[in-house]
Amino acid sequence: MRFSKTGYKEEELLHLYKELITPRLIEEKMLILLRQGKISKWFSGIGQEAISVGAVQALEKDEYILPMHRNLGVFTGRKLPLNRLFAQFQGKLSGFTKGRDRSFHFGTKEHHVVGMISHLGPQMALADGIALANTLKREQKATLVFTGDGASSEGDFHEALNVAAVWDLPVIFVIENNGYGLSTPSHEQFRFNSFLDKGPAYGIEAVQVDGNNILEVHRTITKLAKEIRKNPKPVIVEALTFRMRGHEEASGTKYVPKELMEHWAKKDPVENYEQYLLKNKVLTPDRIAQYKGEIKAEIEAGLEAAYAEELPEFNLDTEVTDLFEAYQQTVIPPATETKSDKRFVDAISDGLKQSLEKYDQLVVMGQDIGDYGGVFKITEGFLEKFGRDRIRNTPLCESAIIGAGLGLCINGYKAVVEMQFADFVTCGFNQIVNNLAKIHYRWDQNADVVVRMPTGAGVGAGPFHSQSNEAWFFHTPGLKIVYPSNPYDAKGLLNAAIEDPNPYMYFEHKALYRSLTEAIPDDYYTVEVGKAAIPLTGDDISVVTYGMGVHWAKALAEELKEISMEIIDLRTLSPWDQETVGESVKKTNKVLILHEDTLIGGIGAEIAAWISEHLFEHLDAPVARIASLDTPVPFTKTLEENFLPVKRLKDKILELHDY
Ligand SMILES: Cc1ncc(C[n+]2csc(CCOP(=O)(O)OP(=O)(O)O)c2C)c(N)n1
């Protein structure tokens, strides 16, 4: 291995040496503790330390770095207190996740470190968002994210690189190419020769470094960071290396040919650098002993503190409240009484526009939302008013954009992300349910992202442009869900969702966009989240519904004047208003839950279970449900009409009434 110390002062060389041996010494200790059963799992980075250490030392301390599972050197380089780091590994309260997540799965904004989720690939889009925030602030900062050669097969890899390229984001994508993804060798992972080939495909510069050579890694990344701070653009760094231990300690390395192991053993990043410094008289055996002694003492002190701590006590309140950033909504009434007629679609547009005026830090992203104004024209004219920085046309990549939304939020912004159709949220599902929904619970980072979704059927658009998919998110702790049924609520709930620093799924029924007009306030206002409305009061039957269901129920109530129906419009699905539902059921003693979504496992199932459990003595009939058929949404009118519950609604109400 060839080192060149040209350009480095002696103290810099020694500093890098100390930084390089720190993760190695910690790991050696961890492996002992693992064998003693004192920690549960360990993902070794032995053999790869020069990449983490070289990278983190090349960045400014306030530049974000996004490590993966083998980047211990990033955490030590950013000087996280060792007692807290070890407490994190042991699931203790003073760790970074209060015992809620393991190993390196955490971030700390204080240290400008954003850790991974297990799913690997989604990490990269967060770097895009963080870098975007820096460019919007006109701050000359680089962001660096790691990924592995295995994770590069994930679609998220492609999406994140592509967005970074199209938006000229100053991100250094470091690909640690260690030849294996768990046990799968590179040739079973991809067909290209090197990640250098990926650069031109994305229009990105790509460079290759010897990942075991600390000076080469450090020098290269220092230079690239300097360049991209001045001239924002992404760059790929392929760092060639090898993982000397198993994927995690239990999995071993049997699948690695012996000669390969021997070849890379000779290239050990720590030993080689040490020898180089000794040969060049920068380092002496005494100094090595001194450094190692100091670091080992720090490790022991950190461990002692971590071991002295008990496991966290279970606290039901904080387990649940920590899902979200603490936030108490203040409902804002309109400043004046002026109103004008607005269609549902205009109400959403109006709310979004006024929120953009209210929050300079709000960025809206989506496909075709710029010059074109969005496929439903909700953002028409926004580009001229708010500019290209804040109204961002995106490539076709839901996952990267939702991830970028989270990255924006980590770095001080608010994001609204438009799905062209709610159906396409499937492509961003992982970012929503695993990143947005879990991040506050895991490490106290809020996700100030609203995902807007044109939803619902009745427009002859078939299985992939008509779905109701609120139940997927309803089941996921950590998300708030709103689903307005009229223009007033559409504007007020959108504003409320944007105000709240927590993640929202905002459903807007596209069949209501242009079919419903109402005089609503011109001023900015918000609607209470978590509070149902009662558009019709009655005594005989409670109909609990939302979205299009409200209109079906209202029409039926008009027709069946002899039955006194009370309609509850939930408006917020998560958290749903148990109090209002409860009071209504206590009054009418009969309840039908109606939704457009399919029946099995729908939101109605949860509401029905809750009513049965809590209001059994108040019921004069079994809790009834009506919903769409449990099939995909069909295209042709005659089929779609019968798929939806509306045709069966009258019979169901009569049946319940007569029970
Ligand atoms: C989406 C997803 N699929 C599978 C896994 C299981 N898994 C964890 S790490 C890993 C291999 C990753 O390989 P690579 O990206 O090259 O990183 P390395 O472990 O070699 O550092 C696999 C398959 C996972 N964590 N996430």
Description:
- With 659 residues, this protein is of the alpha/beta class.
- Helix content is 40%, strand content 15%.
- A 7-stranded mixed sheet has the order 10-9-11-12-14-13-19, sandwiched between helices.
- Helix 4 packs across helix 11 and helix 5 runs parallel beside helix 6.
- The chain is elongated and about 95 Å long.
- The model has no long low-confidence stretch (mean pLDDT 97).
Strand content: 15-25%
**Per the principal axes of the C-alpha atoms, what is the gross shape?**
elongated
Helix amount, in percent? 40-55%
Low-confidence stretches: none
Bound small molecules, deduplicated: thiamine diphosphate
Gyration radius over CA: 28 Å
Q: Quaternary status of these chains?
A: single chain
- Strands, count: 21
The number of helices is 24
Q: What's the N-to-C terminus distance?
A: 85 Å
Largest sheet descriptor: 7 strands, mixed
Class inferred from helices and paired strands: alpha/beta
The whole-number mean of residue pLDDT values reads: 97
Order the strands across the largest sheet as they lie in space.
10-9-11-12-14-13-19
